[in-house]
Amino acid sequence: MLNSIKTFSFLFGYLPVAAVKLKSFQKKKPHLTIEEYDALIHTEPSKWASGIMKRTKSEVSVTGLELLPEGPVLIVSNHEGNFDIPVILSSIPKPFGFISKKEVKKLPVIPIYMEDMNCVFIDRTDRRSALKSISDTAEKLKEGHSILIFPEGTRSKGNGLGDFKAGFIRIASDAGVPILPLAIQGTADIMEKNDNKIKPAKVSLQILEPIAPETFKSMPSKEAIQFVKEKIELAFKNTDNQQK
């Protein structure tokens, strides 16, 4: 219970500090390149996410940092729990935005930050919004920003990989950028498996070999989806074998 109070207190308590920092960052924007501004904006979400993870008292192991490529990439990760984004934000030094449900826009400060991070908002109940999010995300990538997407569309809560929706392949193909697969395990143990109470957990984040556009563009869509999904599944199996 104490972990939950500390975590949620920090989650919202840090927002006034973030708001002040954002205003100072935006003043610098006209004088910075896209890469420089993305890196500057990333500093605060990364601090915020690190503070959240510290308060959960979870142990996070990260492998594959040396595989992070230069330039924009579509980061494709499985989606286990609500703490996936804090883990990824606090663990990966590469700036990125992500696709988020539109309800987040009702929160204070956070959506303003997300817009400057180049996040894309989607109304899952509206097919037109979903289709527009594909083109909007591809455009962000073409502009030079990296984006994170969870192709399962919803949290697995630690119950294995769900089906991958096809949109991410179209996005990466349209933008002509590599796909960077991530395999994340253990975030559901922080909250989802505890009746939404926060407890310490062991979390593993594996950064996998980037997949070049010419690799997945040469495949039929269904084959490309399966190809990426199998990369993540294999990473899970390797981790399970190492733990035995």
Automatic annotation (TrEMBL):
List its EC numbers. Answer: 2.3.1.51
Q: In which pathway does it act?
A: Lipid metabolism
One Gene Ontology cellular component: membrane
Q: Report if keyword Magnesium is assigned.
A: no
Domains as described in the record: The HXXXXD motif is essential for acyltransferase activity and may constitute the binding site for the phosphate moiety of the glycerol-3-phosphate.
Identify this protein by name. 1-acyl-sn-glycerol-3-phosphate acyltransferase
Q: Which family does it belong to?
A: Belongs to the 1-acyl-sn-glycerol-3-phosphate acyltransferase family.
Presence of keyword Lipid biosynthesis: yes
Instruction: Output the superkingdom of the source species.
Output: Bacteria
Enzyme class at the top of the EC tree: transferase
Give me the reactions it catalyses. Answer: a 1-acyl-sn-glycero-3-phosphate + an acyl-CoA = a 1,2-diacyl-sn-glycero-3-phosphate + CoA
Q: Which keywords does the record carry? A: Acyltransferase, Lipid biosynthesis, Lipid metabolism, Phospholipid biosynthesis, Phospholipid metabolism, Transferase
Q: Which GO terms describe its molecular function?
A: 1-acylglycerol-3-phosphate O-acyltransferase activity
Q: What is any one GO biological process for this UniProt entry?
A: phosphatidic acid biosynthetic process
Q: Residue limits of the Phospholipid/glycerol acyltransferase domain? A: 73-187
Specify one Pfam family.
Answer: Acyltransferase
